[in-house]
């Protein structure tokens, strides 16, 4: 079957699957409120349903899957889903993004089941900042999770740091040292005004340019790596060979080469992180649709795609939080932790 291309000629190659909307942290940039409305448990796709959908998605060109959330390791027996996905021949890459809290205890089961790569979110090395940022304790557990991951996926562990002014921007260089000492690749992520970031403001964003300037002041010349890829991170090399990445989603969005879509834990398919409307795949599955008819719906939906959400946000001059708190409370699907970051 021909791979699907959207109206801007972008293929569908990557699927990010949120396996749960629940989380054991409350990061200020993602879930800053006290109360959340969770998706009803009976609406969550079962592993068999997810694996079936992924198989159908591969017919359209999907080759990479990333499991995310909420916190994916809260989904009971997640390694069983990994095992089912690992059996899909057309799938080339199965990755996971986690906050790391439960990773030390699950790394072996996930690696044995066939998980190829892992990204751990690490915004700070200071327990006090961790607590302020996530409103929970647990930095030591996250660090133990990173050690366990480094042992099971050598060369295939990344660390993601969301840089926020007034919170952790003073730790850029410390995080870079931490990653370098362990041969892990660190990626700096610009703070984004996604649904859930109800306290976002342009002044809290530490831009790609500022990040590079801080690193250059300590490490000298930074060499951009010439790469032709659809990956969101631009990669750079320091003189000592250390490679790091920057995901400049806010100041330099990469919508023109965006080949990813998102599936929520209850089976809503979104073509863009910023899309208001999605396609209800759970309804199709549970109404008895065949693989062929699901594939046809996916294809017509993707070929009509014109989304370039982050670029459009950049064009808006007076820019505040994307979605108001009331709207988020009415519809949890607008939240980043539901949609999968
Ligand atoms: N709970 C897991 C974790 O934190 O790694 C996976 C889900 S989380 C939504 C996925 C990624 O989205 C994390 O790396 C997180 O830092 C990032 N993220 C969440 N809100 C963000 C925001 N407002 N701006 C930039 N990145 C954000
Ligand atoms: Fe933090 Fe990830 Fe949980 Fe969001 S989903 S609150 S980023 S740990
Ligand atoms: Fe892709 Fe939408 Fe993100 Fe742009 S904003 S990179 S189109 S998901």
Query: Structural class of the secondary structure composition?
Result: alpha/beta
Which CATH architecture would you pick?
Answer: Alpha-Beta Barrel
Which strand order spans the largest sheet, edge to edge or round the barrel?
Answer: 7-8-9-6-5-4-3-2-1-10-11-12
Question: In CATH's first tier, which class applies?
Answer: Alpha Beta
Give a summary of the structure in a few sentences.
This protein is an alpha/beta fold and 341 residues long. It contains twelve helices and twelve strands.
Topology:
Blueprint: E1 14-18, H1 47-60, E2 64-68, H2 78-86, E3 93-98, H3 103-113, E4 117-121, H4 127-134, H5 139-152, E5 157-163, H6 172-181, E6 185-190, H7 208-219, E7 222-224, E8 234-238, E9 243-247, E10 260-263, E11 268-270, E12 279-280, H8 281-286, H9 291-303, H10 309-315, H11 325-330, H12 336-339
Written account of the structure:
The chain is an alpha/beta fold and 341 residues long. It has a single domain (14-339), classed as TIM Barrel (Alpha-Beta Barrel), CATH 3.20.20.70. Helices cover 33% and strands 16% of the residues. The protein is built from 12 helices and 12 strands. It has helices at residues 47-60, 78-86, 103-113, 127-134, 139-152, 172-181, 208-219, 281-286, 291-303, 309-315, 325-330, 336-339; strands at 14-18, 64-68, 93-98, 117-121, 157-163, 185-190, 222-224, 234-238, 243-247, 260-263, 268-270, 279-280. It has a 12-stranded mixed β-sheet with strand order 7-8-9-6-5-4-3-2-1-10-11-12. Helix 2 (78-86) runs parallel beside helix 3 (103-113). The chain is globular and about 60 Å long. It starts with 13 loop residues before the first strand and ends with a helix. Bound molecules: S-adenosylmethionine and iron/sulfur cluster (2 copies). One iron/sulfur cluster (SF4) binds at residues 253-255, 258, 272-274, 307-310. The site of S-adenosylmethionine (SAM) has 20 residues, from strand 3, strand 5 and helix 12.
């Amino acid at each position: 079957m021909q791979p699907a291309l959207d109206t801007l000629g972008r293929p569908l190659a990557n699927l990010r699957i949120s396996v749960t909307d629940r989380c054991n942290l409350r990061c200020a940039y993602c879930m800053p409120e006290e109360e959340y409305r969770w998706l009803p448990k009976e609406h969550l796709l079962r592993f068999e349903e997810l694996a079936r959908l992924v198989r159908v998605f591969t017919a359209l060109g999907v080759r990479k899957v990333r499991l995310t959330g909420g916190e994916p390791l809260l989904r009971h027996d997640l390694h069983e889903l990994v095992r089912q996905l690992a059996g899909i021949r057309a799938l080339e890459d199965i990755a996971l993004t986690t906050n790391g809290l439960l990773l030390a205890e699950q790394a072996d089961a996930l690696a044995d089941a066939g998980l190829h790569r892992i990204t751990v979110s690490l915004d700070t090395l200071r327990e006090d900042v961790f607590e302020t940022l996530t409103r929970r304790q647990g930095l030591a557990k996250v660090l133990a999770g990173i050690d366990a991951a480094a042992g099971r996926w050598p060369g295939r562990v990344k660390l993601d740091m969301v840089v926020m002014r007034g919170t952790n921007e003073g730790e850029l260089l410390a995080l870079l040292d931490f990653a370098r000492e362990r041969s892990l690749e660190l990626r700096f992520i610009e703070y984004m005004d996604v649904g859930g970031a109800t306290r976002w403001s342009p002044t809290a964003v530490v831009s790609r340019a500022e990040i590079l300037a801080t690193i250059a002041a300590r490490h000298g010349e930074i060499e951009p790596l010439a790469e032709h890829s659809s990956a969101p991170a631009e990669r750079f090399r320091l003189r000592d060979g250390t490679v790091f990445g920057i995901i400049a989603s806010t100041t330099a969005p990469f919508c023109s080469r965006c080949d990813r879509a998102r599936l929520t834990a209850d089976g809503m398919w979104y073509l863009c992180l910023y899309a208001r409307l999605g396609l209800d795949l759970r309804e199709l599955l549970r109404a008895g649709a065949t693989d062929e008819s699901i594939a046809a719906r996916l294809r017509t939906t993707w070929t009509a795609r014109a989304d370039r959400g982050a670029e459009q946000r950049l064009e808006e001059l007076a820019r505040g939080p994307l979605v108001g708190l009331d709207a988020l409370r009415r519809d949890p699907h607008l939240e980043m932790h539901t949609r999968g970051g």
